[in-house]
Specification:
This protein is α/β, with parallel strands linked by helices. It has eleven helices and eight strands. 41% of the residues lie in helices and 14% in strands. The radius of gyration is 19 Å and the shape is globular.
């Protein structure tokens, strides 16, 4: 493969875990991005931030990708809330949630979500929605609540052992998370030194300037989160465990979902602008990995979503909401 094609595939592997960073959210009056929704206390005393809306069963649980907060679902959640109760949340160490003990692997994430829902008095049945790395986390949560999880929608999800699976096809380095980790390490060092925000080009990404559409209160909350060392420690731990401990936890979990409705959505534009034939080859491998997940259910389906990048939660919230309603409407087989 050409050097240019190999570079494209390395970027592809990283994009499949892309951090949301800051998202623009404009709301009339009180800006929800400026404050927590409902802080729920876990058994060890930590608090997780939940944002629930709508009504109707089953309850839909939204799990974001790497470094994402509950606000990442600002386009998707209102669409689902028209028909169902739906809850997004900040994982430990992100947004308005307290940091959690390290490591922040998938088992820790799923346990926290389990405890938070119990503490909030939110019971099943559940439909789980996981974007990017969140696709791994919801699969582990489903193993904790097999009798209550009645369906899943995985949105351009990461897959277990993703680095190895891409390297087998495209060579060493494909799917490397080194750039994301290096950035988090730089941001952690700056946060420890109380050096954020910074005009240093290498550190601007850690605490970007306020956006034109952002309220002053939301900008202040976002900066406070960026200045916490625990934010970056959480990111580093998630990255260090995704293709290791978290992937092994998936291996040890359920490999067959029976007749549980399962929809896997693949973004058609994950590598728009990349050179051919590398782009087509990478996307076919990516879609094939998603088909393998869908095949774990007799009611599983994998489909490609046009006009969408990996950030389908922003590009095609309608496609996600439609898949959720499709899964939520399926009646259990007797």
């Amino acid at each position: 493969m050409s050097r240019r094609g190999a570079a494209t595939l390395v970027a592809f592997g990283a994009l499949a875990l892309a951090a949301l960073g800051a998202v623009a959210f404009t709301a009339p009056g009180d800006d929800p991005a400026a404050h927590p929704g409902r802080l729920v206390r876990l058994p060890d005393g930590r608090r997780l931030n939940l944002r629930c809306s709508g009504a109707g069963s089953p309850t839909v649980i939204l799990e974001g990708g790497f470094a994402a907060t509950s606000m990442g679902w600002y386009k998707v959640q209102p669409l689902i809330a028209r028909h169902r109760r739906v809850c997004s949340y900040d994982r430990a160490g992100y947004g308005f949630s307290d940091p959690g003990p390290l490591p922040r692997d998938g088992a820790a994430v799923a346990r926290d979500l389990d405890d938070a829902l119990r503490a909030a008095g939110i019971g099943g049945p559940f439909v789980l929605v996981g974007h990017s790395a969140g696709g791994l986390y919801v699969r582990l949560f489903a193993d904790r609540r097999p009798g209550e999880v009645v369906g899943m929608v995985l949105v351009d999800p990461s897959v277990e052992h993703q680095d190895e699976r891409l390297a087998e096809r495209f060579g060493p380095g494909a799917g490397s998370l080194a750039p994301q980790r290096a950035r988090a390490v730089r941001c952690l060092d700056a946060a420890v030194r109380d050096a954020l925000p910074s005009v240093d080009p290498a550190l601007v990404v850690c605490a970007p300037p306020p956006r034109a559409s952002q309220s002053a209160a939301a900008a202040a909350a976002e900066l406070a989160q960026a200045r916490r060392p625990s934010t970056w420690e959480t990111q580093i731990s998630e990255l260090d465990t995704l293709w290791g401990a978290t992937s092994r936890e998936i291996d040890a979990g359920r490999q067959n979902y029976g007749a549980m409705p399962l929809v896997v959505l693949t973004a058609a534009g994950t590598l728009d602008g990349a050179p051919e034939p590398a782009r087509a080859a990478a996307l076919e491998v990516w879609a094939g990995l998603h088909r393998q997940i869908a095949a774990r259910s007799t009611r599983g389906s994998a489909r490609t979503i046009e006009r969408s990048t990996h950030m389908m939660i922003f590009d095609r919230p309608d496609a996600i909401a439609e898949a959720v309603e499709e899964v939520a409407s399926v009646r259990p087989r007797q």
